[in-house]
Specification:
heterotetramer, A: alpha/beta, two-stranded antiparallel ribbon, B: alpha/beta, 7-stranded mixed beta sheet, 14 strands, binds thiamine diphosphate, binds magnesium ion
């Protein structure tokens, strides 16, 4: 059964009536292209030793950007380490993102008005947090919706299950987006679970489930708008399975040659989301090579500026290690702070 | 149990009432719910049923099912959900039925509860309170008598409070709910109903992070907390009959640890015995003893001894269970030994 | 949709062709009646202070006995605290069961040849063990199948999810029986999960799921035989949701008056499994009041004998507290053992 | 990394080879798999990929996909599944990628791994080995540098082993796999590839439960384990240049703790500094210091000091990370202080 929601073919042809106007798609394209540019440049910085271990998102731009664009300003984004594309789309300054992946404290203290939780490393542990955030929003009738990401591998963790169940029981306004990118480091989805249709779990929790072509920005945005809307209007949580592919290594430290065939990845490059949407827009006369070049210049300038800002962040002091352990330093932290040279 | 006075006897409002510890806790929760909208109370069986120990008895009726409610049976979910509520600015108070059932939630505790403020440089904080019944002595079923405070205490960023009776419990719990940091609040099962004590009806707060000298003496300091405080006081009573004057310090807050009060006492008496019911090896008593031995070194007249659970799981076997948990006799044996030195 | 497998109506009428001969049903009835007798007597002993906290299983005899009877001798049973009925059916001596619930060590060291894991208190934690046992059996081509129990409440725990997923991925020969008895202490299934059809989770894991009337011994046995057979012949795990009802308090310490209506429980007594099967057998001329009385005499004698055996178990020594911490005592245990008076 | 010699260089069979710690571990696993059918190796990414640190490199090819395999991404599942295999008589060896990812598995560890033998009076046992990479010093991402040994050490019934280099790691791992009890085997990430050492090609076993004097001295005893052993040895080298002779004891097995060897050394030197990289409060150093202070009381010339991670989460911030983990300078500062006393 192929119930995957899709509006645009792999080669960028329109398969059915588009639910959005072309302007909206152009700005979505710009956001995706911006994310791709960030990713490419981040990898370069990492190779230069100017970022730490960096988890690339190449190939997942539509899933992330499409999901993030469905949010309103007051909505929350709960990302894993993979979701830098979603984060910068939902308003994270590029310099913050860079400093984050530079493991610099200035990148970890997000601006007060940014409704994004910090990137999560311990797999699936963010999901119960998303439910708590969402339930709080509902209890206070705030109207804010929470978008929570998790990977295919992450769905195996107990926390994923507990969070989905809590969300359903509390009818919390949260949308779970599983980016099924085929891999959890070296483990393919087929060895992660027996039924690789993650969407089939939705019925068990008593929530709607949707499988969507996560490399089709149009489909992703449409599915997410419906889900966000449902959440906002009291309809409770939705499980969205976004079918995508991790084109890059797991992180800059990973060597995928140890576990997967390069040819397979090549093959998958053909359905990558950025060129797919570009093909659609180009065929509709809404995008051109010149527009692309102009955009790239803009993105380059923006990124350069962000790097400059990031570089200007003052180095943390050793004493900062024991700051922010508690609201006010306990005696053990104070002693440590002095030993570390204070300041 | 239905015959107990409704714990939150606020309506009658006597200035002071004789309450059990579980009633004092109930009253603290009641008052916190009444005075702060952001307070939410949740966990397994805390809603309709009022908690397996009745700590939340009546609260759902008084404050509504949207403020006091049952969750699904999943402790990691409870903890993580509580973190989310706290991140959103609520003041969540989660109940974990027994401290041994904190174990499924430890990933949330160790990865997030204690770490969130630090990793986000104060941008996000987790003012979460987690209450859990701990310890043995009342023939609970297997795995219902654990004392895992040392696990929590080794996690930087969390506070660990263990009240020793009704009056302290109420003031500390109200302080914990106000605290900007996450507080684990371990309630000795043995103390829930073992005795009553005058508890002021008005809300009041006791400072977190302070140890208390609960009995003065000069021959030796017993350092203890939670369910062991009454055991140590009893030991001190017995010793007093023999003319030996023991000082008893209730640590009360394990983290942040109040070294000053503990060291002050030991410097005065010159001797210390540390008492807890968790197994000895790796228990929090090691931390306490190490601090005393390091910082009161020149005042010590005898080695710092520890009286603790034996190095075995809390025995599920009814007829030997009472040999596991330290009692006054075992404390006194250690005292005698220390006084010989 | 009512897809619940059922052969016998609540009042004991045959609804369709029975899959077993009457002899088999008579012995199944005897096993159920034996369990009921154990439960009743255990409660009395508990009231006399001769057992510790005891988790009654009244109302769940068919689910437990039916499941256990589907096992062969070399198969494993993995119970929660609730499954004393299943355990004594799969060969646990009554005296062992009594000593277990007396919290006496002699009841915790099961006979070597008994393929039953000890009763589990920490909810759902037994399920990954069951998968490991089952996978070991498969890896060694032993042919042994594992029957693992869990409650409706227990399905909310992360371990339940992880275990079901592992079982499916490894195609482990394990049958999961969820006894949906309506309650997790005071929490009804409707507040435990949004979709109370636990069987609907099976598809997500990629395993067959069956909902069965757990108070119909015939249906239970039939469904379990199929599932055990599938597991034994390489067909992998099955999720069986047995619809039953906890007629008794959660344990002897519980007061259900705090959270449920006695009238509702009365109502449920009407569909309890023991009298249902008795009605069927009686209507078929395979059971009589005399047979019942004779059986009760037997059961009484057997139970009395078990009590006598249990009473004869020597009291443990204090030193036993530090025995069996390790295969051989470490220095800390040795010191403790001496302090405890040795022996 | 692909250029490293295949670690299980058994086929060439030189009597001794220069191996890194990760290669020595790989060799131990290889030999255990070869000699005992019951041994199974599993975890996240251990199969096809050979482990994130390559500890299981090549093992799947050599021993088959039914002996060395990937599991789903679920640590509690891995631990509980491993318990099940062990109950069935297998000799499971689970890998948890990083010690911080033991947290989701702690319920299984605390409720079952350490308790099964005790609660069933020896009827069921759990001869499970759990390997996990721990500690900092190599700029791993956030939450990849934890040192949770104190949590494991407070759980009666489990053994905790922390090897300090290639030769020890191989012998201890083979002993752990043979051990009838569960063993947690914590491998310092910093040591995986930092140096090579001659490792006998044949299988051999080192006794679990024994500490080792790795350097003799008379002025003070440094008590340490795992990644801190090389730090302490370096400190001892530096001190030696100043004519100060430090003894270094590698605890190696935290539980069961070898009090005899540690006390023997401290009784001789009269002074001790305990070193670990976990945060100080609640770390296992408290247990060690408490034991020394209690049992070597009359031989101590100075307070027992601890050098440890600061009371904060391991900082995820690259440029300050190295201030957290103890180094030779910090050890020497504590030594100097102790020698003044
Ligand atoms: C609790 C935990 N276990 C293991 C890891 C190590 N780890 C990091 S990413 C990863 C794979 C995650 O796969 P998936 O959820 O599919 O997300 P993706 O990386 O594909 O975005 C693993 C095993 C971790 N970070 N946390
Ligand atoms: C990890 C854990 N959390 C909480 C408990 C306390 N507890 C014991 S039984 C129970 C309810 C279980 O309900 P269910 O799984 O439906 O099984 P039933 O009792 O109905 O057989 C709870 C919450 C526990 N034993 N373990
Ligand atoms: Mg993935
Ligand atoms: Mg139930």
């Amino acid at each position: 059964m192929d119930d995957t929601v899709r509006y645009v073919s792999e080669s960028g042809e329109r398969l059915s009536e588009l639910p959005f106007g072309v302007d909206e798609l152009v700005s979505a394209y710009r956001a995706m292209r911006r994310a791709r540019h960030f990713d490419d440049r981040a990898v370069t910085l990492q190779r230069q030793g100017r970022l730490g271990v960096y988890p690339l998102f190449r190939g997942q731009e539509a899933a992330q950007v499409g999901a993030a664009l469905a949010l309103s300003e007051g909505d929350w984004l709960v990302p894993t380490y993979r979701e830098t594309a979603a984060a910068i789309t939902h308003g994270m300054p590029l310099s913050t993102a860079l400093l984050y992946w530079r493991a610099h404290p200035a990148g970890w203290s997000f601006p007060e008005d940014l409704r994004i939780l910090p990137f999560y490393v311990p797999i699936a542990t963010q999901l119960p947090h998303a439910v708590g955030l969402a339930h709080a929003s509902a209890l206070r009738r705030e109207g804010a919706v929470v978008l929570a990401f998790v990977g295919d591998g992450g769905t195996s963790e107990g926390d994923a299950h507990e969070a989905l169940n809590f969300a359903a029981v509390f009818m919390a306004p949260v949308v779970f987006v599983v980016q099924n990118n085929g891999w959890a480091i070296s483990v393919p989805t087929e060895r992660q679970m027996r039924n690789t249709r993650i969407v089939d779990r939705a019925v068990g929790y008593g929530m709607p489930g949707v499988r969507v072509d996560g490399n089709d920005l149009v489909a992703m945005l449409q599915v997410m708008r419906e889900a966000v809307d449902r959440a906002r209007t009291g309809g409770g949580p939705t499980l969205v399975e976004a079918m995508t592919y991790r084109l890059a290594p797991h992180t800059t430290s990973d060597d995928p040659g140890r576990y997967r065939d390069g040819a397979q990845t090549e093959e998958r490059e053909r359905s990558e989301p950025v060129s797919r949407l570009r093909a659609l827009l180009t065929s509709q006369g809404a995008w051109s090579e010149e527009a692309e070049q102009e955009l790239l210049e803009e993105l380059k300038a923006e990124f350069d500026e962000a790097v400059a800002q990031a570089d200007a962040a003052p180095e943390p002091t050793p004493g900062s290690i024991v700051e922010h352990v508690y609201a006010s330093m306990g005696p053990d932290q104070s002693r440590a702070w002095e030993a570390l040279g204070g300041e | 149990m239905a015959s107990e006075a409704p714990a939150g006897a606020v309506q009658e409002n006597p200035a002071v009432a004789q309450l059990t510890m579980v009633q004092a806790i109930n009253q603290a929760l009641d008052q916190a719910l009444a005075s702060d909208d952001r307070v939410l109370v949740f966990g397994e069986d805390v809603g309709v049923m009022g908690g397996v120990f009745r700590a939340t008895d009546g609260l759902r009726d008084r404050h509504g099912a949207h403020r006091v409610y049952d969750t699904p049976l999943a402790e990691s979910g409870i903890m993580g959900y509580g973190v989310g509520l706290a991140l959103a600015g609520m003041r969540p108070v989660a109940e974990i039925q027994f401290a041994g059932f904190l174990y499924p939630a430890l990933d949330q505790v160790l990865s997030h509860v204690g770490r969130y403020r630090h990793r986000t440089r104060g941008r996000f904080t987790v003012p979460l309170v987690v209450r859990a019944a701990y310890g043995g002595g009342v023939h609970t079923p297997e795995q219902h008598a654990d004392s895992p405070e040392a696990i929590l205490a080794q996690a930087p960023g969390v506070k660990v409070v263990v009240p020793a009776g009704p009056e302290r419990a109420k003031g500390l719990l109200l302080a914990a709910i106000d605290d900007p940091d996450p507080v684990f609040f371990l309630e000795a099962i043995k103390l829930y109903r073992s005795s009553r004590e005058p508890v002021p009806a008005e809300p009041y707060r006791h400072a977190i992070g302070k140890a208390r000298v609960v009995r003065e003496g000069d021959a030796l300091t017993l350092v203890c907390y939670g369910g062991m405080v009454e055991v140590c006081l009893k030991a001190a009573d017995v010793a007093a009959r023999d003319g030996v004057s023991l000082e008893v310090v209730d640590v009360e807050t394990l983290v942040p640890f109040d070294e000053e009060t503990v060291l002050g006492s030991v410097r005065k008496t010159g001797r210390a015995v540390v008492v807890h019911e968790a197994a000895r090896t790796g228990g929090f008593g090691g931390e306490i003893a190490a601090r005393i031995a390091e910082h009161a070194f020149y005042d010590l007249l005898a080695p710092v001894a520890r009286v603790a659970g034996w190095d075995a799981p809390y025995p599920p076997f009814t007829s030997v269970e009472h040999h596991y948990r330290p009692d006054a006799a075992r404390v006194l044996a250690a005292v005698r030994q220390a006084l010989l030195s």
